[in-house]
Amino acid sequence: MALLFLSTAPSVRAADDPLIDAYLQGVDLYRKGDLDAAIPQLRKAAKLSEQRFGPESPELALDLNNLAEALRRRGDLNEAEKLLRRAYAIDQQQDDQDTLAAAATLNNLGLVLSAKGQKDQALAANRAALAAVEKALGTDHPDTARAAYNLALAEAAAGNLDVARALAARAAFVAERALGDRHPVTRQMQATAARLRATPDQPGGPAARSGMDVAAAVPAVPRAARRAPSAAPVDEVEPAAAPVVRAARPAQQRTGEPAAGGGERSFAVQLMALRDEAGLEDAWRDLRRRYQRLETAQRLPTTHVDIEGRGRFYRLLVGPYTARADAEAFCGGLKQDGGDCRVIIRN
């Protein structure tokens, strides 16, 4: 839930904007698994964000989340925790608090605390995140399923198998209803629920030591761009940037990014990414049946992304959009309908 719903082109022109340049390069390097190169760029983005927007801005909280997630993946847990606690404090100070943004920060904090072995604190963070998402979006939204799934993994890591099984089953059920049984998020949740059902009831035993923490979380997407292998990952799913993606609110959207008019840049909305290219056809038909707004959407030619250590994933895309705001508006509407998506840069 730490990084934005964003995929980047391999290169970004430094003349565009220093903040945007650092941010996009950091995300791109992160998605490729090069954490040592990504972290300096994300650190630079956070520094520039604080200078531009102020030390208590929601924009800074977003960049702190991004940097913290990359640090967590590299194992720099103390610094990641410090950054996330600062981001959560910023979230809480806002006059118009964004419940989902705060929940995203709590989820990321739960990841770090779980990795540090502070299971009780991790559970508290994940439970609060689920309560916040459920209150904001209801019980049948995909993001609620993700939050329940993340909590299931944390409960399993703490050895609370009965609770974990119930949460995982609930998450898989909601995901199937909202996204369909072919969606990679649904498949991963179903696989984890089955794995938990098969885990013996041994308090403090295999479940507590299996590595089944929230690092195995589903894509948002999160969204998305985090590459640590999960416990028994579902190979068909493009590795996620995060379990629940912290997307930029309209007030947080960055400015100064070059538009596509003149051929510089355009955007697309990614609906999913699968290892099996042939599976995209059935997925596209199923999604169009489920979501009316996709009936008039233009499907773009299939593209792929190669992720080191994981292989090639084929993307189901709609668009194109000349402005990021238009792509995010479409994706936001689809999420409100119960769908799942992320905005990517096409060129």
Helix count, per DSSP? 12
Major beta sheet, strand line-up: 1-6-3-5-4
| Gyration radius over CA | 19 Å
Reported CATH architecture of the domain at 250-345? 2-Layer Sandwich
- Count of distinct strands: 6
Descriptive report:
This protein has helices at 18-31, 35-53, 58-74, 77-93, 99-115, 119-137, 142-157, 161-179, 184-197, 206-209, 279-290, 324-336, and strands at 6-7, 222-223, 267-274, 303-307, 311-321, 342-345. With 347 residues, it is an alpha+beta fold. The chain has a domain at 250-345: Alpha-Beta Plaits (2-Layer Sandwich), CATH 3.30.70. Strands 1-6-3-5-4 form a five-stranded mixed sheet. Helix 3 (58-74) runs parallel beside helix 5 (99-115) and helix 4 runs antiparallel to helix 5 (99-115). The longest helix is centred in the first third of the chain and has 19 residues, at 35-53. It starts with 5 loop residues before the first strand and ends with a strand. Mean pLDDT is 75; it is low at 1-15 and 204-263.
Short description:
With 347 residues, this protein is of the alpha+beta class. It contains twelve helices and six strands.
Which helices and strands, and how do they pair?
Blueprint: E1 6-7, H1 18-31, H2 35-53, H3 58-74, H4 77-93, H5 99-115, H6 119-137, H7 142-157, H8 161-179, H9 184-197, H10 206-209, E2 222-223, E3 267-274, H11 279-290, E4 303-307, E5 311-321, H12 324-336, E6 342-345
Parallel strand pairs: 1-6
Antiparallel strand pairs: 3-5, 3-6, 4-5
